[in-house]
Amino acid sequence: MRCEQIEEFLSPYLEDELNPEEKRTIEEHLKTCPNCSLLLSSLKETRESLVDLPQLEVSQTLLTRLYSIPQKKKRYSLGLDFFLRPALQPVLAAATIVLTLFSFYFFGPNKRSIDRTINRQLHLGYGAVEKLYAKADSFVAALGEYKDSILVSLKNITGHGETENSTSDKNGGIKWKKKSSSPDKQNLPLSQEFSPSSFPSEWARSTTVNP
Amino acid sequence: MLVDTYSRKVFNMSYQFSGSYEEAEDMTQDIFFKLYSSLNKYDFSKNFTAWFLTLAKNHLIDQYRRTKWQKKTRDDFNEHLLTSEDLDSPEEDVLKEENKRTVWQALNDLPSETRMTVILRDIQGKSYEEVAEIMSLPVGTVKSRLNRGRLQLAKILNEKKEKRNEM
To answer: Does B33 contact A73 at a Cβ distance shorter than 8 Å?
Structure first.
């Protein structure tokens, strides 16, 4: 066997892990090879030196630091646990989005154009709401004089006048009666009482939708 | 208490691996901090000591790879290691002390995994099976690494002895 191969067996030889045949081969080689013998002697000394290295005691300072770790960890983890609660995740996600948008707005290069766009949109929205209010006012004014008759007609249609035209059955359901044929001012047909042609021209104008 | 049982083992493991007393203290603190954070991951069917020392080994090797301790020199051998009682004994001869000094410094020349294997087996005196469990390696791999590490240290010691003889 060559020295490089013998080297591989020196450590197991020292620990007595070789079979008798391998052991004999190593010993025969060592008798004739001073280099390998020297290496074996150094290997022995290395092992002895490693085994003799002392195990140091832990300093009091380090022990104090180690004992304080659980309290430190508890203190840190309390704060962290609060923020890591699953219930807070949607809130944190929303906060992240809001913060991202704010950072885009405040630190982005187009802050002025964003301001202009927001102002324009607010103005348009405000104008649309004003128009809607104006239309609603004119509609209410136009309907003012027809208010009573409209209410009566609605009662007839939806069954609010059920005391006159309907009775309750045993199960609480409503059975509809046939309408009286006598022309009563209160029971005029809707077409006679309230029709679009009777609306004032002012209302018609205000509700016209411009393309 | 975990600190009472394991602080000495972990500190010595860190010191022998890093070679720096201050670094070893910081590393020990980091390892215990990591331990408290990882306790909920511990599988009760496993050996706690082996599990904890694996955690310590992983931390030390990760730190070593990140900061490359091998570029730093190890503490002077006398500074902490000769304060031990057995080294104060009168029969401690100069040659042995010189060998220890050489081996101590030569530990820095070993690759991190090999160095850790040598520390666990030869300095801390653990069995092959324990070392294999801590290193998460088969026993055969542990033996071959150990063999390689010891040979490297022996060759360094050999060179040192040859130089001494030449002088």
So the answer is: yes
Give the pTM.
0.61
Give the integer Cα–Cα distance in Å for A156 and A83: 61
Contact B84 A48 (CB under 8 A): no
Instruction: Quote ipTM for the complex.
Output: 0.87
**CB atoms closer than 10 angstroms to residue A90:** 9
pLDDT of B57 reads: 94
User: Which domains can be identified in chain B, with CATH numbers?
Assistant: 2-166 (1.20.140.160)
Parallel/antiparallel/unpaired status of strands A174-176 and A166-168: antiparallel
A126 to chain B nearest CA, in Å? 56
Q: Does B147 touch chain A (CB under 8 A)?
A: yes
Extract the runs of DSSP E, i.e. beta strands, from A53-121. Answer: none
Whole-angstrom distance, CA of residue A111 vs CA of residue A104: 8
> Which of B13, B8, B25 lies closest to B58 in space, CA to CA?
B13
pLDDT tens sequence across B49-85: 999 999 999 999 998 888 765 556 788 777 666 645 5
Distance of CA B8 to the CA centre of its chain: 13
* All structural domains of chain A with their residue ranges: 3-52, 61-108, 110-170+185-211
Choice between A183 and A40, residue whose per-residue pLDDT is larger:
A40
The position carrying tokens 């022309």 is A183
- B128 neighbors B121 (Cβ within 8 angstroms): yes
Nearest to A62 among B11, B81, B103 (CB): B11
Chain B residues whose beta carbon lies within 8 Å of the beta carbon of residue A63: 3, 7
